[in-house]
Design goal:
Layout: H1 2-9, H2 19-47, H3 53-67, H4 74-78, H5 93-98, H6 107-132, H7 138-149, H8 152-160, H9 164-179, H10 184-200, H11 205-213, H12 217-233, H13 239-251, H14 262-270, H15 283-303, H16 311-328, H17 341-354, H18 357-382, H19 388-395, H20 397-421
Length: 428
């Protein structure tokens, strides 16, 4: 009888508990993922004349105009700046200013250099994230690497030459510093990385609120100093035009199917015609978008109280705020969502260590909806699929995926805090 009771109390064995079996699964999944990534992200653009649309048509065009003493935001006055992609330049002037030395360089050289920089940025993020999360098991590290390489926004950024992967690398440095709370030197480096990222593109601006909320003063000072120095140095004569003309136009949002934010969903509900046409959101949608942003921010900060005392607790704090960022923004283009690799990494590590299948499931749903499901919708559009009801529903996959990831972060934070109160460690 005692033996029977002991056997029923013992956790049921799973095939995933076998390391050899896990190695086989990683090999089966890893070979095609790595091969596909190398072909799409390195071989094809470097050796077969890849064309980086946004980098060459938008970034380099703006750099060329700056080098000639012309306004980089000229297209905003003619065709508008409602879409954060395409030939119109809609970012702070500092990026175009930094790219001026490349004006006149052949397109092939620029493509190779940009592709290598973007891949290096991804590698830096992965290395720093694994270091911050103290991943010492090669199988877990391999799993996270494969998740990153197969994440659809990664390839999307490389194919267009967008700067979001550089921001991801900088966020990796900030994240590593954020976890190292007692290392003063790391705080300065992390703050500087955050400031540079925000100066290049404001989509990481909400992360600064976490630094302020946590009263990391040295990190906040470093971020503000780095950002201000770059803005003052980088074509400041166009800064006011960016802040008071370009930024308000972009922040107005749009219901275009690529906008994976609550603002995009609301715009599509208020004005269904915006699904395939880039134009500004109706006034009612804008008001509700701001209201949702405040609610998401307040809920996130409320769940994060009190401040975490462990490294994994601080990692979950960072994950929650980064996951909330696309919900706070009025527009979240598909390629912007590459920054969500940070909360994906954190949640996977925490959930695997805790065997929290709810969180793992939510992360899996998020990864699938943001990546393969969204790619399927794009493929249907390209092939001329005409059922608008299906396409409109599929356009919300990205918003649902972001929401699932954010909820997973909040659940993980609450359960982590509860475990800490009960004396259970986040680490095995």
């Amino acid at each position: 009888m005692i033996g029977e009771l002991a056997s029923t109390a013992r956790p049921r064995a799973s095939a995933l508990d076998n390391r050899r079996f896990r190695s086989v699964l990683l090999g089966i999944a890893g070979v095609p993922i790595v091969a596909t990534y190398l072909w799409q992200a390195l071989v094809q653009p470097i050796f077969f004349g890849g064309y980086l649309g946004d980098f060459q048509e938008s970034y380099m065009r703006a750099a060329g105009r700056l080098a000639s003493g012309l306004d980089p935001y000229d297209l905003c006055a003619t065709i508008g700046c409602l879409e954060p992609t395409g030939p119109q330049y809609v970012m702070p002037p500092v990026l175009a200013w930094m790219l001026q030395p490349l004006v006149g360089v052949s397109g092939g050289v620029i493509t190779v250099g940009a592709v290598l920089v973007l891949n290096a940025s991804l590698a830096v993020f992965i290395w720093l994230a694994l270091k911050a999360l103290r991943v010492d098991d090669w199988q877990l590290a391999a799993l996270l690497v494969l998740l990153a390489l197969a994440f659809e926004p990664v390839i999307g950024n490389i194919s267009e030459g967008q700067i979001n992967l550089v921001l991801l690398g900088l966020s990796g440095l900030w994240f590593w510093a954020w976890v190292q709370e007692n290392d003063s030197r790391a705080q300065w480096w992390g703050g500087a990385a955050l400031g540079v990222a925000a100066a290049l593109k404001l989509i990481q601006g909400p992360v600064v609120l976490l630094v302020l909320w946590a009263r990391r003063w040295s990190m906040l000072v470093a971020a503000a100093a780095a950002g201000l120095v770059l803005w003052i140095m980088g074509a400041p004569q166009y800064l006011f035009e960016y802040l008071f003309k370009v930024l308000p136009a972009v922040s107005a949002g749009t219901g275009f199917f690529e906008n994976h934010s609550p603002g995009g969903t609301l715009a599509r509900l208020f004005d269904p015609d915006t699904f395939l046409t880039v134009r500004g959101s109706p006034a009612g949608a804008r008001v509700l978008t701001v209201l949702i942003a405040f609610i998401v921010l307040l809920l996130t900060l409320a769940v994060l109280r009190p401040r975490a005392t462990s490294a994994m607790g601080r990692a979950l704090e960072a994950a929650a705020v980064v996951a909330a960022t696309p919900l706070i923004a009025s527009y979240s283009w598909g390629t912007h969502l590459v920054l969500l690799l940070l909360p994906i990494f954190v949640l996977i590590m925490w959930a695997i260590r805790r065997r929290d299948w709810t969180v793992i499931g939510l992360v899996g749903v998020s990864w699938f909806l943001i990546g393969p499901a969204h790619k399927l919708m794009q493929a249907l559009l390209v092939t001329g699929y005409s059922n608008l009801i299906v396409l409109r529903l599929m356009a919300e996959f990205g918003v649902v995926g972001i929401l699932a990831l954010w909820l997973a972060c909040l659940i993980a934070v609450r359960r982590s805090r509860a475990a800490t109160v009960n004396g259970v460690s986040d680490h095995p």
